[in-house]
Design goal:
It contains eight helices and 20 strands. It is of the alpha+beta class. A six-stranded mixed β-sheet has the order 6-7-8-3-9-10, sandwiched between helices. Helix 3 packs across helix 4. It is globular. The N terminus is likely disordered.
C-alpha cells in the first residue's frame, strides 16, 4: 500500500505566492548626514508578531517611527496592505503606536483614555461604549474602567495603553519597548499575554526591543539590526541556531568560538584544525568558505557536555580545568580554562543538588559536543 505524501504547511514568508502585508523597499533615513537607517528591505506578513532587535542607536526606533509616519524616509518606499504610504502623515495611516511611556491622560478615567481616539473620529456614542468595553475585557481591565492612571500599577497602565491602541482596530500595531517599565516577573507574564491577545485579534504587531529574551519569546520572526542595517531576519530558532555572522551569534545568547583553518571540505561535513581548541573540530554541514580558509567554529554553552572521564570520541573533544561555577537555580554555568588559556562556557541543568554534583571547582574535565551542534562563522 502506497504511503501518503506528508503535506508540509509553508509559513507565509516561505511561500512565494504570499504577498507581504508590510513592505519596506530600500528604506534609508539620515539626520544631517548621520545615517540612522541604511537601505533596509523587509517584508512582514499579515498576522505576524515581528520584532526589531538591536542595541541602542542601531536604527530600530527610527524604522518604527517611519512606519508610523512620524518620520519620512530619505530614500525608499513603505507599503501597508499594498498601498504606498511613504509620504502619508501619521493620521492618514491604518497604524497605531504604543509608546514606552504609555502616555495616558492623567485627568481621564481608564474608560475615557481608551475612548479618546474613537471620540476624535466622531464615532457613534453607543459603538464607542461597546468597543471600549470589548477592549478592556480583552486586556482583563473591565473592572477598572472608572479609575484614573495614578490609581493603577505599572502593569495595569500598560494594559490600558494596549486597550487604547487596539480599540481603533488598526491594521498594524507598533510597540516601542512596551514592557521596559515593568519588573522582571510582570514582564515575563505580560509577554505571553501580549502574544495571546495578538493571536486573538489577528492584528499585525511590530515590536521594538533591545531585550533578546523578550524578542525570542514573543516573535514569529525577528530582524537583528546593527548600525542602521538589517543583519539577519529569521525565526527565533533560525537566529539562535544558525546565525549568519559573528555579530548575530554574539548578540543572541552566549556562545563559544574557536579560531581555526578548514583542512577538509565535503558535502556533509567540514573539518577544522584549531590550535585554540586543542582538537580537530568536525562540523556536520558545509559552509561558504574555501579549503584553507580561516574561520570560527561556534558552539552554544548548553550544547557542550562535561565529564571527568574522557569520552570515546576524539574530535570535538577538549579538556581543561574548572575555574568557576555560576549557580543559576535551574542551570549552572561552568567556566573551564583550556590548556591554551582560553575560557569556555558550558551550561548544565541542575538535576541534582549542588553538593551531589560530580563536577566542581578545580576539577580537570573533558568538554565534548556533537558535530551537528556547532556552526561555521565566516562573516
Amino acid at each position: 500500500m502506497a504511503q501518503k505524501k506528508q503535506h508540509i504547511e509553508l509559513q507565509p514568508w516561505q511561500d512565494p505566492k504570499e504577498k507581504p502585508y508590510i513592505h519596506l523597499e530600500g528604506v534609508s533615513k539620515d539626520f544631517r548626514g548621520t545615517v540612522a537607517v541604511d537601505d533596509v528591505t523587509l517584508s512582514i506578513f499579515q498576522g505576524e508578531f515581528f520584532s526589531l532587535l538591536g542595541p541602542s542607536g542601531c536604527g530600530k526606533s527610527t524604522l518604527l517611527r517611519m512606519l508610523a509616519g512620524f518620520e519620512m524616509p530619505s530614500k525608499g518606499k513603505i507599503y501597508i496592505d499594498g498601498v504606498d504610504v511613504t509620504h502619508r502623515p501619521a493620521y492618514d495611516r491604518p497604524v497605531n503606536m504604543m509608546f514606552q511611556s504609555y502616555a495616558l491622560f492623567p485627568h481621564m478615567t481608564v474608560e475615557q483614555n481608551v475612548a479618546f481616539g474613537l471620540k476624535q473620529e466622531r464615532i457613534f456614542k453607543g459603538e464607542i461604549q461597546e468597543r471600549v468595553k470589548d477592549a478592556l475585557k480583552l486586556v482583563q481591565m473591565e473592572k477598572f474602567g472608572s479609575r484614573r492612571p495614578h490609581q493603577l500599577s505599572g502593569g495595569q497602565r500598560q494594559r490600558v495603553a494596549l486597550a487604547r491602541s487596539l480599540v481603533k482596530r488598526p491594521k498594524l500595531l507598533l510597540l516601542d519597548e512596551p514592557l521596559a517599565a515593568l519588573d522582571k516577573r510582570l514582564r515575563e507574564q505580560t509577554q505571553f499575554e501580549l502574544v495571546n491577545i495578538q493571536e486573538e485579534v489577528g492584528i499585525t504587531f511590530i515590536l521594538v526591543t533591545h531585550d533578546q529574551e523578550e524578542a525570542m519569546t514573543m516573535s514569529s520572526r525577528l530582524g537583528i539590526m546593527d548600525h542602521g542595517r538589517m543583519r539577519q531576519i529569521g525565526t527565533p530558532n533560525e537566529i539562535y541556531e544558525y546565525p549568519h555572522s559573528e555579530y548575530v551569534a554574539d548578540f543572541i545568547g552566549s556562545i563559544n568560538k574557536f579560531e581555526g583553518r578548514i583542512v577538509e571540505d565535503e558535502r556533509d561535513h567540514i573539518l577544522v584544525e584549531s590550535e585554540e581548541a586543542g582538537c580537530e573540530l568536525y562540523v556536520s554541514h558545509s559552509a561558504d568558505a574555501p579549503l584553507g580558509a580561516q574561520v570560527k567554529v561556534a558552539i552554544r554553552p548548553e550544547k557542550i557536555m562535561i565529564a571527568t572521564t574522557p569520552p570515546e570520541q576524539k574530535r570535538n573533544t577538549t579538556k581543561g580545568i574548572v575555574k568557576d561555577v555560576g549557580y543559576l537555580g535551574d542551570v549552572s554555568i561552568y567556566h573551564v580554562e583550556l590548556e591554551g588559556g582560553k575560557i569556555i562556557l558550558a551550561t548544565q541543568p541542575n538535576l541534582v543538588r549542588l553538593a551531589e554534583r560530580p563536577v566542581t571547582w578545580d576539577d580537570e574535565v573533558y568538554l565534548f559536543w556533537r558535530a551537528e551542534n556547532s556552526i561555521i562563522l565566516t562573516a
